[in-house]
Amino acid sequence: MAETQTCKMSSVPVQQVATGDRAILPEGAKTIPIYIMGKRYEVPETLTIMKAMEYAGFSFLRGCGCRGGICGACPTVYRKEGNYKLHFGLACQTVVEPNMYLAQIPFYPANRASYDIETIEPTAEAIHALYPELFRCVACNNCTKACPMGVEVLDYISALKQGDVAKAAQLSFDCIQCGLCASRCMGELPQYHLAQLARRIYGKHLQPHAEHLAKRVAEIESGKYDAMLDKLTKADHAELEKLYLEREREPEMVPLGSWMPQDTQYL
Ligand code: SF4
Ligand code: SF4
Ligand code: FES
What we know:
Blueprint lengths: L2 E4 L6 E4 L14 E6 L2 E6 L4 H8 L18 E6 L5 E5 L9 E5 L19 H7 L11 H5 L6 H9 L3 H7 L8 H4 L7 H16 L4 H11 L4 H9 L2 H9 L22
Parallel strand pairs: 3-7
Antiparallel strand pairs: 1-2, 3-4, 5-6, 5-7
This protein binds iron/sulfur cluster (2 copies) and FE2/S2 (inorganic) cluster.
C-alpha cells in the first residue's frame, strides 16, 4: 500500500508508491475516487483497476493471473455514479474512472460436467446429454453483453442448440473462461464450459489433423532433439547469446515458402 514520507530538503510530503508490476504512479497523475467493494479510495487516474486496487492496499491471492487479458482470472463488475447500468471488464485491462463502484468476481459456481475427451462421441447430442440446461436458454443476450472479450456468447449457445459444434468452437475461440456470462444468465447455463467442450471435441475429433505436426511430435518423442536441448540448457549466457546472434535468419521480403536454412538437421 502507498505510504507517505517527508522530503528532507523541502519538508513537502513525498508519496512512496509501489513500483514494477504493482502500481506505477505516472508523473503528475491526478488521483480520483473509486469505490472498491463499497469503500472509497483515492487512486491515480491512469491505473488499471488491478493496479489501483494494489495501490489502495489490496493483495491478489486470487483474482489475478497473467495481467495481460488472457487468463480470465480478474472479471470485474462496476457501475458509474448516478447510472443504473452495469459494466463488465477485466481488472488488468480496464482503466479506473472517477466514482466507479466495483467488485471482482474471481470465481462463479457454474456446473461443470465430467467426460473423457478420448472416448466422447463427437456430436452435439453428447454435449446436450452432458449439459441439458443448454435448452433453458431464453435468448436474452445478457451473456453477450457481459462478455469482456466481445465474444458472441448467445450465438455460440444457439449454434450448440442447433447441433453445430464446429460453429460453436469457432465463435467461442476468444473465450478466456472468466465466467461473467454465467453470472448474468437467467437460464443458469455454464456457457464457457459448454464452449470449452465444443472446442475440445472439435480439436480432438472433428478438425483435420495436421500431418506435419504429428510427425514433429513423433520426432520429439523419439529423442531427436534431446542432445540439442541438453546442450542448450547447459550453455552459459555468452554462449547462448553467440548462438542467438549467429543464427540463420530468413531474409526479409522473400517469396513465401522459397527460403530454406542451410542447416536442416533439426527440420
Ligand atoms: S464467453 Fe463468458 S467466460 Fe468466455 S470470456 Fe466471455 S464472459 Fe468470459
Ligand atoms: S444469458 Fe443465458 S439465457 Fe440469456 S442468452 Fe445467454 S445463455 Fe441464453
Ligand atoms: S489477470 Fe489474466 S486476464 Fe486479467
